[in-house]
Write a structure and sequence with these properties.
By secondary structure, the protein is mainly alpha-helical. It folds into three domains: 189 residues, Up-down Bundle (Growth Hormone, Chain: A); 56 residues; 236 residues, MFS general substrate transporter like domains (Growth Hormone, Chain: A, Up-down Bundle). The chain contains 20 helices and no strands. The longest helix has 36 residues. It starts with a helix and ends with a helix.
Amino acid sequence: MTAVSDRRRWWALLALLLGVLVVGLDVTILNVALPTLAVDLGASTAELQWIVDAFIVVLASLLLPAGLLGDRIGRKKILLAGLAIFAAACVTATLAEGVALLIAARALMGVGAAVIIPVSMAVVPSMFAGTERTRAVALLTAGMAVGLSLGPLLGGWLLERYWWGSVFLVNIPLVLAGLIAVAALLPESTDRCAPRLRPLPIAAAVLGLAALVYGVIEGPVHGWTSAPVLAGGLGGALLLVGFVAAQLRSAEPMVDLGLFRSRAFLWGSIVATAASLVLMGSLFLVPQYLQVVQGHNAFGTGLRLLPMIGGLMAGGLASERAAARLGCRVTVTAGLGTLAAGCLIAAATGPDSDYGLTATWLAVLGTGLGMALVPATDAVLGALPPERAAVGLALMQTMRQTGGAIGVAVLGSVASSVYVSRLELPAALPPEAVRAAEESAVGAAALGLPEVAAAANAAFTDAMTVVFLGCAVLAGVVKVAAALEFPRSPEADEAQSQDEPTRTA
């Protein structure tokens, strides 16, 4: 391989980095804009959840089929199509004047992102090998993490200077640059051995996840025993069960469920999913707390989220050394314990708490997330043989994104239910004002009545307390399970899993 081709490969990797960076930005950039959207578009809490979740649900649902489509048709062709779809969705979101069109645009962004993430990863083995491949995967992972971290800060800066549509407009130059770079630099690659795409299982997975999340989000709005909520929740669960059953029976499954026989893959994916659930649920609620309850502007909110970002980076760096010295199991369980501690500190936050307390638990949360996520992902990578790396990473990413979607849906719904139950409004308040206050804390603040705003702030903080207590329990349960089941060495666990068929034959 010549020096020129070496340079070309790394420039091609930079093109892939642009794509995953934009996806990372779009996952979190909207969080600081939620209070603005609630006012400008009149969005309810459930609609705000759908603005966030429409992207994540579609992304999680389509990761595996998009990756397989790239394997069969050509990864460069599919990646260009994904970037084009993402750019079109950003233009649509920028021009949206209502909640429905914005949710539709966010769903279309999810389609583009579902192509960009797995196909970008799948291209790497065709360009790099050995330690270079490890470095390339690490750079793509870092690009996604940088996007996630910069999202709230960039979103806040844009909202302070421009209208809310600017948080989508900023993506377009990056996506266009990625399109040009991919077209010019990326080699085409395929995998003709990839399993065929089957429309019915794909439809079952996509509709099942969407229906399940719909049931969770609409539960507080229509009642948990109402017909639409039960139909969505139970129907979605049945479709997902049917999808798994079909994959288990298929001679050529789209999803290689045999990967879960590896403890490193199974528990690495479980830990990463639980951490993503807490991360996305936190990023849905905390910006609203900082803006609505604490009264900070959008950019100030982004700045005040920096302790979580710093903790995430510090925890990730510390976990690399800790895992090398102590093993993945100790590092992951320590990270989950730190995450649980951060959630417990967050549960002690009140409407008038000093920012010093908030900064403390944000930093502890971030540190725990970094310490748990990085070694869990490393364990998954270490457990995968090279020929199964692409599908294994896509499967883990599907679980992570599903966890994020469920996190926003479940934790947002719990917060909404607790908020309404704890809200104590003045008896003389007009019905229209009562409805506005019960919709969200943003609606209560918009009324301009100090007594109502104070009641809403107290109720929102109570709701956030309940959510973080639930997150602490989740992190604690997964910590105990990981301490018992997570392998110390993923490589040793993979060798053991490969020996098992011989012993049972």
